[in-house]
TrEMBL record:
Pfam families: DUF1501. InterPro entries: DUF1501. This is DUF1501 domain-containing protein.
Amino acid sequence: MDRRAFLMASTASLGGMAFPSIVGAAKGRKKPAKSTILFFLCGGSSHVDMWDMKPEAPMEYRGPFRPIKTTAPDIDICEHLPMTAKQGKHLAIVRSVTDFGRATGDHHAGYYYNLTGNVPDITFRTQGNNRRPYSTDAPYMG
């Protein structure tokens, strides 16, 4: 057996012996959740049709789909999301929109704000869709 094969076999056997105790220790402690799933539907379905339905609104404002109940009280979502509706008590649905008086009419500025938490600067208004990322831009998810 050459040196490389010996080291690989030794390491594998030592790791194998420690594995049950590592798994057992991990099962004993419960950590708080540190993850979030973000549904950022760029170019996806309209939020009014899926998440913020307005069934009582006039025909020209509401979408074509029907609302269904979720497991959260008083929260309805689109009929096309039945499995998501079953998880309703775990959802945090954000149904508010604001521009802080800096309306640009540009979706990219909204993406930037939603994904970084930073209010877009004036270049989003002056350059619009032609704006390229700057090295000073905040990092974002995506």
